[in-house]
Automatic annotation (TrEMBL):
Name the record gives this protein: Insulinase family protein
Peptidase M16 C-terminal domain boundaries: 204-387, 686-862
Keyword Hydrolase assigned: yes
Pfam families listed in its UniProt record: Peptidase_M16, Peptidase_M16_C
Alphabetical list of InterPro entries matching this protein: Metalloenz_LuxS/M16 (IPR011249), Pept_M16_N (IPR011765), Peptidase_M16 (IPR050626), Peptidase_M16_C (IPR007863)
Span of domain Peptidase M16 N-terminal: 52-167
This protein's record includes keyword Lipoprotein: no
Keywords, ordered alphabetically: Hydrolase, Metalloprotease, Protease, Zinc
Family: Belongs to the peptidase M16 family.
Coiled coil: none
Length: 949
């Protein structure tokens, strides 16, 4: 049962109600299910989130597990070729056509192939009857009547190979090796959707068509539509354009996904089978093992789902204890236990362990000890009630917010349910089943389900290590067969800490000033202690409140000599607790509540962010205010953050894109150390004492802005604000030097970075400086249009024409809170030998845009999707909060928002040419390339080296 979603009210198990055969899960009447005479199944419902959009999913029950050895990669290749040439779309027309209809390629228009299915996804805005008809016409041609030509295959295969290269690298090799081990003997072990170089290069129109004819059939296809249109009109379109599709030949037998096999002579109580050690540089030390069982199709009944809830409760209890053990000084940085039904191939219980240091055996011993304790004796009723409270909020929040469920998410729920051969249920049904199940959550039931989760056909384990330490597969096996020592020291307290036990933060403040902004009822407040606030009580998203706290000076307030403590604060600050409340106690407070403790660093402010609900608003604000007013400085979170940062650094050169992401922010801020990823030398200097020295004054710096947007009564939101942030002591204004927001000097010779990933992969970036600050807000939006036009041209040049890159990108960055530092950047991943082609292409595109205006059609392909994107996003509170952050301190941001739609959707070819002539000059460009370490000259392959070529 997939949730949240909604279901049909037709008779369970009927021919039309195909999803619910054998199920007694209650259904509602929002979904209409049906089957055309040719066998196509459909599910259709009205949904108005966002308004005037429809979300279409066409699911073909055929993925990479359906391929023969000679066809590896064909299911995914066909996904590409359907966008290349089809009955109603000539070669190369698909992407421009969907863009003109308002759909952005890659987000609104996309497809994905797994081992078990291929799903085509379309989210189309501004729907009209005419667009609805055109949409289904085009989709029918793509799915039922693609055209496979020699030119099409010759063009698309290099693009797929580019995608293969861009996804390759150490992490991919580890994932592939893990699948090969855990699912040995099954198609899941080796049938990656991307295929192989050999089979893809051998593909022909005839061989690809043979796979399509066999599996792309109406009786193997499901169409799901959720959107702001009449359901019967959508059904009529499905019938009109797909009803005439006829299958070629008899339906083939279902593909056999195989079953896991137990090793001969294995211990039935602990059937450890294959084990393996993988040495992969740039990948963290990690131990993973799986208890593997055959996948079985279950009737998706209420009783079955109640059993799944007990399974989930058992796993939640173990994972909570694992966290408590880690925080108390365990030998692992992170660990988790999860149950997964993998691709209709295996039912698995997965255990993942990341050691705190290099002693992986001790870490595995620690985690297995926690699991052994859960297997030996039942949990207490207090333990169960704690997890049940978490379940209650997890199931209740979707009930409270179901009016805001997007049609795209509802459509995805159906495709997921079809893939795993289960049903969907609406939030009310899920919550009702949960409440009905409460008597079943007994200590003995949890113990029995825990034991079942750790029984299986075979246990398989893998150690991944960045260096050859001498560990062997036999060592891995020994760690799994060793008798674990029960860890009973992580029992949680029986009495749960409550907010009623916490002290007040001070005397509640009062409203000193209240100003109506004139935008959507948003008001700007000043409290008696100087705290500023934006309040917008509205019911646009029932049951949801977005909270954002901005305070202090951000990265600008951190001294460059203390730069390492910026990212460590991002990782550890919220883990250190507040007052007398440590991180475990914070979890106690959060039990059964919808809280978040997100923290991030901005250029000129620090931010707390949360997504909460009306019942939890006051206590959510208390958590954030207490962090500022009563900070706590537990050392263990800092120790763990340093260990995590070391792992992050170790992986930072594992691919060209990883190396570029590691260094580009630092380089584009003219090597300001506050934007640099901490390296081992910097991490060696970190102490908990210095962490406190740096962060304690930063938390005390003013000013504070509190933004509350969402479903709350104004008087309740105001009272919560006054009792929490209004009770803090007045804060001194922050005085920080401005950030150095200068880009590096222009250079025709690229700066060279190196990576330690695959030798046939590289990355590059060309950057043109622009500007920054609110004074240029209108120009910044026009630059976004220009960037998208350039993006389409770069996409055509690097992907469509020469197949050198899968997803080249052009973006415009304009910092609103800094006077400079903005840029337009073109980024690409490709083969090292294609780097000259990229630099030539970017120079040509920039020069052409400066010399000749783009066509009106080029502009329309960009402005229509941008217009629709803004129109859809503006129906939610997050859109306005993202634009108005800091608006309580800088009221001019309210004026900026008035022109956003016009700025993004209207321009002229001449305006675009003028911007290009001003900014996209070759003599202003800065270049960087990332090449394999062996080709980097004097770099020595060390991550972070930035030598000049």
């Amino acid at each position: 049962m997939v949730s949240p979603a909604t279901t049909t009210g037709t008779t369970a198990g009927s021919a039309q109600n195909w999803l619910y055969a054998g199920s007694d899960v209650p259904q509602d009447k929002e979904w209409i299910f049906g089957r055309l005479p040719n066998g196509i199944r459909y599910a259709v419902r009205h949904n108005g989130v966002p308004p005037e959009q429809i979300s279409v999913r066409v699911l073909v029950d055929a993925g990479s597990f359906y391929e023969t050895d000679a066809q590896r990669g064909y299911a995914h290749l066909i996904e590409h070729l359907t966008f290349r040439d089809s009955k109603y779309l000539k070669s190369g027309e698909a992407i421009p056509t969907w863009q003109r209809l308002g759909a952005t390629f890659g987000s609104d228009t996309n497809a994905e192939t797994s081992g078990t299915q291929t799903v085509y996804k379309l989210d189309l805005p501004a729907i009209t009857p005419a667009k609805l008809d055109e949409t289904f016409m085009l989709l029918s041609g793509m799915i039922a009547a693609p055209i496979f030509t020699p030119a099409g295959v010759k063009t698309e295969v290099p693009i797929v190979l580019a995608e293969m290269r861009e996804r390759a690298g150490p992490q991919t090799r580890v994932m592939d090796a893990t699948r090969e081990l855990f699912f040995a003997g099954q198609p899941a072990a080796t049938r990656s959707p991307i295929g192989t170089v050999e089979t893809l290069q051998a593909a022909t129109p005839a061989s690809v068509k043979a796979f399509h004819d066999k599996w792309y059939r109406p009786d193997n296809t499901i169409i799901v539509v959720a959107g702001d249109a009449e359901p019967q009109a959508m059904i009529a379109q499905i019938d009109k354009w797909f009803g005439g599709w006829k299958a070629r030949g008899p339906k083939p037998a279902p593909a056999d996904f195989g079953k896991p096999v137990a090793p001969k002579g294995a211990d039935p109580a602990n059937p450890v089978g294959e084990t393996r050690v993988i040495v992969e540089p740039s990948v963290p030390l990690q131990f993973n093992y799986a208890i593997v069982r055959p996948w079985k199709k279950h009737a998706d009944t209420i009783a079955y789902n109640q059993g799944l809830m007990i399974d989930r409760l058992a796993l939640a209890l173990i994972n909570r204890r694992i966290k408590v053990r880690a925080r108390a000084g365990g030998s692992y940085l992170d660990a988790s236990v999860d149950q997964q039904n993998y691709a209709r191939s295996a039912d698995t219980t997965m255990v993942s362990v990341t050691p705190l240091g290099n002693d992986w055996k001790a870490a595995v011993h620690d985690v297995r000890g926690v699991i052994a304790d859960a297997l030996a004796q039942p949990p207490s009723q207090a333990d169960i009630e704690r997890e049940v409270a978490e379940f209650d909020v997890a199931f209740k929040v979707p009930v409270e917010t179901q009016r805001t469920q997007a049609g795209s998410a509802l459509a995805d729920d159906i495709t997921q349910a079809v893939d795993i051969r289960e049903t969907v249920a609406n939030p009310d049904t899920v919550y009702a089943i949960f409440k009905k199940s409460l008597p079943l959550f007994t200590p003995q039931a949890v113990l029995e389900h825990t034991r079942a989760l750790f029984r299986g056909t075979v246990v398989r384990g893998m150690l991944t290590t960045p260096t050859d330490t001498g560990a062997t597969a036999q060592d891995v096996r020994a760690a799994l067969v060793a008798q674990p020592v029960l860890t009973t020291s992580i029992r949680l307290p029986g009495d749960k800490l409550t907010f009623a036990q916490l002290p007040a933060l001070g005397v509640p403040g009062t409203v000193k000033e209240d100003v109506q902004t004139g935008i959507l009822g948003i008001e700007r407040l000043t409290l008696s202690n100087g705290v500023k606030a934006l309040l917008w009580a509205n019911d646009a998203e029932p049951g949801r409140i977005i909270v954002r706290i901005r305070f202090g000076g951000g990265l600008a307030a951190i001294a460059p000599k203390d730069a390492v403590y910026g990212p460590l604060g991002n990782m550890a600050l919220m883990e250190t607790g507040f007052g007398n409340v440590d991180r475990n106690a914070m979890d106690e407070l959060a039990t059964g509540r919808k809280f978040a403790l997100d923290f991030k660093l901005d250029d000129t402010a620090f931010e707390f962010d949360a997504d909460t609900r009306p019942a939890d608003l006051k206590d959510q604000l208390y958590l954030f205010a207490a962090k500022l007013g009563q900070p706590r400085w537990d050392p263990n979170p800092i120790v763990r953050a340093v260990a995590a940062a070391r792992l992050q650094w170790a992986a930072s050169a594992s691919s060209p894109q990883a190396a570029l992401q590691r260094d580009i922010g630092y380089l584009l801020k003219d090597r300001d150390p506050r934007y640099k990823m901490p390296d081992p030398a910097a991490l060696d200097t970190v102490t908990p004492q210095d962490f406190r020295r740096v962060w304690e004054p930063l938390l005390a710096q003013g000013p504070i802005e509190v933004d509350l947007f969402g479903d709350f009564k104004r008087e309740d939101g105001l009272a919560a604000l006054e009792a929490t942030f209004g009770a803090l002591a007045p804060r001194a204004p922050v005085a920080t030097p401005p950030l150095n927001a200068h880009l590096p000097a222009p250079s025709q010779t690229p700066l060279v970075l190196t990576h330690t990933g695959d030798a046939d992969t590289a990355a590059a970036m060309v950057v043109w400086p622009t500007g920054g600050g609110r004074a240029g807000v209108h120009e910044s939006r026009q630059l976004e249009i220009l960037a998208q036009i350039a993006n389409n041209r770069l996409f055509d040049e690097m992907r469509e024409k020469i197949g050198a890159s899968y997803a080249p990108q052009v973006e415009s960055v304009w910092p609103m809170d800094l006077p400079s530092g903005g840029y337009m950047g073109a980024t690409v991943q490709l083969r090292p030998g294609d780097l000259p082609a990229f630099f030539t292409a970017t120079d040509k595109i920039a020069a052409d845009l400066a010399e000749s205006p783009p066509t009106s059609d080029e502009i329309e392909r960009v402005t229509e999707p941008l217009k629709q994107l803004i129109t859809r996003a503006s129906t939610g509170n997050a859109f306005y909060m993202s634009l108005l952050g800091g608006g309580a301190l800088e009221p001019g941001k309210f004026d900026d928002i008035r022109s956003i739609l016009a700025d993004y959707s209207h321009t002229t070819p001449q305006a675009m040419q003028a911007l290009a002539a001003r900014y996209l000059r070759q003599d202003r460009a800065w270049r960087v390339e990332v090449v394999p370490a062996a080709k980097g000259g004097d770099t020595g392959g060390k991550p972070g080296d930035v030598p000049v070529k």
